[in-house]
Design brief:
Distance between the termini: 64 Å
Structural class: alpha/beta
Strand content: 15-25%
Shape: globular
Number of helices: 14
């Protein structure tokens, strides 16, 4: 489950907000992630770096401590993204995003190296060496895009080298890596650079989104990928390339991804794409997670919450922004998919699917005398007519359950209006300020449809009907039917009191 190892937040300063911390607390309770990642630990609003009149560095860690403390209290370890450039150290004034983080090379690489060293040393003093040994230090963010890095690739390598020297000078066991690139770029080039210059690297990291296919191939013209398979194919190819590189065993961290997709001629952007809010996102997320389960080391969803201010914090209840939760804390369909996928623990069972439509899939596990099945009718958006998936799941039961006459089956379905509330909000007319009753409807429609039914067992086989419209998800949890409780046990005192309270009664 590499997808469970990482969840992102937009930038560090947002972790000073109570509502965002509440959203992370919900995700930790429902899913439970290991690492969190965010931009801008060195941004000027963090006030980490200034220079005195003589040009000497002055470091201050107050805000850094607050955000790391808050995320650690929620159980997170850290993938610490070393960026952006503090204004006092920047070579020019080029910035990115609503909060204007500086994306230029340092005017002095030695001062950058000293800043990174001081920062890493501070984390050791505050959190302990053994804890920091479990973290990742990632150099910059998407330096192959001019919007995120105004320098050249060689200048990025100079920044990486300085950062690696700084981190390793505090403890050679600390993990340093990069390039945190967009679209799987610069991975092999970074490895080859580190091998050639004998600069340490402990992992490689990169990012990808399904709609990147439309960046590489306008309207998918000339794309070698089957519809819906670009994302999985590209990540698998990146892993294969690393295995053929001079450092074939380097861990591969995808530190950004989500379900933003496209279709020919469709108008979407990086700040406005409904595929992260709609029912489609649930099936797309499960499709990616199943195919890449044994491929990646960490698979970090971008981002936890719509409290996310690259373009300013959204105002609408649904804003087509990257979060698993809306700005008001409502779980989206994708969040619910991860909640169900999180329950798929234990030993993986073999499944044979004969009647599943293209890209539809399922996974089954068994643990503690239970069987769990998760199925989804995912479909590429380019396919206009997607069939329903009507089937019967036949489960050969283990010995512990095979002799039962009937079994209780809990099901949870994600469909429009039941686990996917975006469509309900659209049906309301997309109100910016929902009424109290509309808010109740949105909250109710954001929860999956939970049911419990009893099914007969015949010759050790349980048959469960499967009916999924396009993009819908269903989860089954199968357990032994326990004998019913006819009468609750009553203590001696309660029996005596019951007698006394009724002794003058007819």
């Amino acid at each position: 489950m590499p997808w469970k190892k990482g969840i992102a937040v937009g930038r560090g300063y947002e972790l000073l907000r109570r509502d965002l911390l509440d959203h992370l607390e919900y995700l930790q309770k429902e899913i439970g992630y290991t690492y969190t990642r965010f931009h801008a630990v060195f941004h000027d609003d963090m006030d980490v770096y200034r220079e005195d009149a003589a040009g000497n560095p002055v470091y201050q860690w107050h805000h850094v401590d607050k955000i790391l403390d808050a995320s650690r209290e929620l159980g997170f370890k850290h993938i610490l993204e070393l960026n952006p450039m503090p204004a006092a150290l920047a070579s020019s004034g080029q910035t990115m995003f609503h909060f204007k983080m500086n994306v230029t090379p340092p005017k002095c690489y030695k001062k950058w190296e000293a800043l990174v060293r001081a920062f890493v040393q501070h984390t050791v003093e505050r959190y302990g060496r053994e804890e920091v040994l479990t973290w990742y230090f990632e150099v910059w963010n998407e330096p192959n895009l001019s919007g995120f890095w105004s320098g050249t690739r060689e200048e990025y390598f100079e920044l990486y080298d300085a950062s690696a020297r700084a981190v390793k000078s505090v403890d050679p066991r600390f993990r340093i890596g990069g390039p945190a690139s967009s679209k799987c770029s610069w991975l092999i080039e970074t490895i080859e650079h580190c091998v050639r210059t004998e600069v340490p690297i402990d992992f490689v990291s990169t990012h990808l989104y399904p709609q990147d296919e439309y960046v590489a191939y306008k309207n998918r013209e000339g794309s070698p990928h089957d519809p819906g398979m670009f994302f999985v194919d590209t990540i698998q190819a990146a892993k294969a390339a690393i295995k053929s590189s001079p450092l074939p065993h380097l861990p591969l961290l995808f530190t950004e991804w989500n379900t933003m997709s496209c279709t020919p001629g469709r108008q979407v952007s990086w700040t406005n794409n409904p595929d992260v809010d709609t029912l489609y996102g649930a099936g797309m997320a499960l499709h990616a997670c199943l195919h890449l389960d044994g491929v990646l080391d960490i698979f970090t969803w971008w981002v936890a919450s719509d409290i996310f201010e690259e373009g300013g914090i959204p105002a609408a209840p649904f804003s087509c922004t990257y979060g698993l939760l809306t700005v008001r804390g409502t779980p989206k369909a994708t969040c619910n998919a991860f909640r169900l996928l999180n329950r798929m623990t234990g030993e993986r069972l073999d499944l044979h699917l004969e009647n599943a439509p293209n890209l539809a899939n399922a996974v089954a596990t068994t643990t503690e005398g239970q069987i769990r099945v998760l199925a989804w009718n995912h479909a590429a958006l380019e396919i206009e007519e997607v069939p329903d998936w009507n089937d019967v799941v036949q489960i050969q039961l283990p010995d512990a359950l095979a002799d039962q006459k009937q079994l209780h089956v809990l099901s949870a379905t994600i469909r429009k209006g039941q686990g996917s509330a975006y469509e309900s909000w659209v049906d309301m007319g997309r109100p910016l300020n929902p009424t109290a009753w509309q808010e109740r409807i949105i909250a109710a429609h954001s929860e999956p449809d939970f049911k419990v039914k009893k099914y007969a067992v015949r010759n050790g086989i349980l048959e469960v009907p499967l009916q999924l419209a396009p993009h819908e998800v269903i989860y089954f949890e199968i357990a032994s039917a326990q004998p019913p409780v006819r009468k609750l046990p009553v203590g001696e005192d309660l029996t005596h009191w019951d007698h006394l309270m009724g002794e003058h009664s007819n």
